[in-house]
Amino acid sequence: MSTDNTDRSLSSDAWFVTTHWSVVLNARQKDSLNSEMALDALCRAYWYPLYAFVRRQGHSPADAQDLTQEFFARLLAKEWLSSADREKGRFRTFLMVALKRYLANEWDRAHREKRGGHAPHCPLDTELAEARFESEPAPGLTADRLYERRWALTLLESTMNRLREEFGQANKTAEFERLKVFLTADKSAIAYADVARDLGTSEGTARVAVYRMRRRFREVFREEVAHTVATAEDVDEELRYLMSALAQ
Q1: What is the pLDDT of residue 28?
Q2: 56 belongs to a structural domain
Q3: What separation in angstroms does the CA of 153 have from each of 21, 64, 238, 243?
């Protein structure tokens, strides 16, 4: 299941020219279709952590929808991209700083505007978002901590979706569904004989299948993190930070 990206070394900055956030940073000072598409892709993938942040700040579902929608409308219009700091090259950090600035300075004006006054740049599934927010398992988390945790979970969800798609393209959907529970399991706890029986294969083949899936999971998760940072040097630190957020 290798890809062109995984064939390249993640220690090379050249690889990061193609990641979403690097494209945005490299092109933010000029008109660039690639930059607009990259920013749109990032916003579509990571809008829910910001919606959850706004809700945890005490805003109603309707106001949170308005605020998040207007924030992305301005962001996608590149109004604030000039403030993106490459030295702090994490899309996660940039979004949070920009959102807090927006909430502090623009709430009154945004609240006066009629809902629906602007065409949505980043469509939000607010019904799904509200259902997810109501089921958040950690009501004691601050808005900032909830944002960080949700950011990490969104990356994991994207990773799982990519893996599911890859297995599906290889006509191995059943194998994916059987093995996915072992992605974070202790190796000693995996009953390979049971896995082999369920997959109709040998125990040795089952071990190889689990090993390859776990390895591919790590590769894809690393790639997903790489999309949100500016350089290769940022990836390991961001991975450690996200793991700590998930542990909360």
Answers
A1: 64
A2: yes
A3: 19, 20, 14, 10
